[in-house]
Amino acid sequence: MSPADWDVIVLGAGPAGALAARQLAAQSLRVLLVEKQAFPRWKVCGSCLNGHALETLESAGLGGLVARLGGVKLERLRLALGGHQALLPLAVGRALSRRRLDQALVDEAVAVGAELLPRTEALVAGALGGVRSVQLKSASDLTMVTARVVLVATGLAERSFLSPSPISSHVNRGSRVGAGCVLESAPPSYGPGTIHMAVGRQGYVGVVRTETGQANLAAAFDRSLLKSCGGPSAAARQVLNEAGFEPLDAGGPWRATAALTRRSTYVAADRLLVLGDAAGYVEPFTGEGIGWALSSALAVVPLVLQGLSDWDPRIERDWAQSHATLIGRRQRLCHGLAFALRRPRISHALMLAASHLPILVTPALNHLNGSFQRQAIR
Ligand SMILES: Cc1cc2nc3c(=O)[nH]c(=O)nc-3n(C[C@H](O)[C@H](O)[C@H](O)COP(=O)(O)OP(=O)(O)OC[C@H]3O[C@@H](n4cnc5c(N)ncnc54)[C@H](O)[C@@H]3O)c2cc1C
Questions:
Q1: Atom of ligand 1 nearest to the CA of 48
Q2: Which residues contact 53 (CB under 8 A, 6 or more apart)?
Q3: CATH code of the region 6-173+260-377
Q4: From the alpha carbon of 208, which atom of ligand 1 is closest?
Q5: Contact at 8 Å (CB) between 162 and 199?
Q6: Strand 268-269 versus strand 203-209 pairing type
Q7: Angle 344-356/358-369 helices, nearest 10 degrees?
Q8: Would you tell me the crossing angle of helices 289-307 and 313-323 to the nearest 10 degrees?
């Protein structure tokens, strides 16, 4: 085997990459965490950590982190659709800005020895002689480095590989796009401790107050709505109005994401494992993405340790399988729910049930929001 510059290179310092880097650096491995942007950075996200995300942090020894950072307890979901509203209790959850959460996870990784390389785009290159190469590109430098194992946690990024790539992303036809912004103020009806979710025919908008007191808006829109409205600000106004929520002065600046619903053709290749959104994502209706990212970070660690010296193709199969078990099933459920809500009759019936018989809907909501497969993430 050729000598490697690093034991592990992790691409992307979102929740998946930062937590994986931390767990691996804590095992005294030489870990390089490469991030394209300067941190701290804001990102399009509803900023809600559900029970599963909080539980996964706890199992990594970071149980009190979100509360310490000021994460606001989420106690209610205020759901609006077609002029009907339902107020449903939430058993668990916190709202925390991604600026603060992601920076804290990176700090945790650096504290146990991971090296952070910010403002650098990393692209995966080939594998040869027991190492995989990665191209690092910053404003001033272009270099090639090697690692025994490379983790790709680049979220919905368009580009993470130098061609030819062993892994490609398949985007679903009709996939919605994400968009978001932060507002300094919002009407009192958008109070803290509540997820305010407006569902329209061509998208939905979630509003939550984070630890800063600001209102964080995150939305998924049909492309046709963005086109007919002329942009996310007007699209959000339309969805809020259609659902029956108070208007918001959501002038922006808005940021949009790439198409949301996608999956990777493979989630592993020689000395390469893909995790978090980079391995596949669905619409964010159930707000579980951070939990999925964190649990995939914990689940990937034993396979990395196994593959460091002697990479066996079985590791690739094992990762595909455990990823499908851990995340795939939940993603299908979330996708099914988001799809059902696009059907006016089903969404109307669900809304009537939620507003008149919350006792029936609340257990399902807490199941979606709460813990799952506890054993699998250990
Ligand atoms: C509208 C919307 C609302 C959402 N709301 C919620 C919610 O309320 N709760 C929830 O749990 N989830 C929510 N999600 C999902 C959640 O945001 C994601 O699932 C989560 O951020 C995934 O984490 P990640 O680490 O995989 O990727 P990211 O958090 O996207 O991190 C990837 C990182 O990689 C970096 N990167 C990209 N390419 C490169 C490269 N080539 N080299 C180096 N660095 C690179 C990026 O700059 C980024 O920092 C929402 C998503 C959307 C779109």
A1: 8
A2: 288, 290, 291, 294
A3: 3.50.50.60
A4: 8
A5: no
A6: unpaired
A7: 110
A8: 160
Torsion of CA 305, 306, 309, 313, to 10 degrees: -130
pLDDT of amino acid 357: 67
Determine what percent of the chain is predicted with pLDDT higher than 70.
Answer: 93
Please give the Cα distance from 32 to 24 (Å, whole number).
10
pLDDT in tens, 287-313: 889 999 999 999 999 999 999 989 999
**CA 311 to the chain's CA centroid:** 28
> Which of 369, 371, 342 minimizes the C-alpha distance to 77?
369
Q: How far is the CA of 341 from the centre of ligand 1 (A)?
A: 24
Q: How far is the CA of 82 from the centre of ligand 1 (A)?
A: 30
pLDDT in tens, 15-62: 999 999 999 999 999 999 999 999 999 999 999 999 999 999 999 999
- What digits encode the pLDDT tens for the residues 307-358? 998 999 999 999 999 999 988 777 777 777 777 777 777 777 777 777 776 6
Q: Is 258 in the pocket of ligand 1 (CB under 6 A)?
A: no
What is the rounded (10 degree) CA torsion for 56, 26, 129, 13? Answer: 50
What end-to-end distance do the CA atoms of the chain give, in Å?
Answer: 32
Which atom of ligand 1 sits closest to the CA of residue 154? 34
Whether the pTM exceeds 0.85: the reply is yes
Give the contacts of 251 (CB within 8 A, at least 6 positions apart): 233
Amino acid, res. 248: L
Pairing outcome for strands 115-117 and 31-34: parallel
Buried b (16+ CB within 10 A) or exposed e, 8-35: bbbbbbbbbbbbbbbbbbbeebbbbbbb
Residues 6+ apart with CB under 8 A from 168: 264, 265
Contact 242, 82 (CB under 8 A): yes
- Answer whether 178 contacts ligand 1 (Cβ < 6 A): yes
Q: What are the tokens at 93?
A: 């959850």
Whether ligand 1 lies within 6 angstroms of the CB of 157 is answered as yes
**pLDDT score of 161 more than 90:** yes
For residues 263-268, average pLDDT: 87
So what's the pLDDT on residue 370? 64
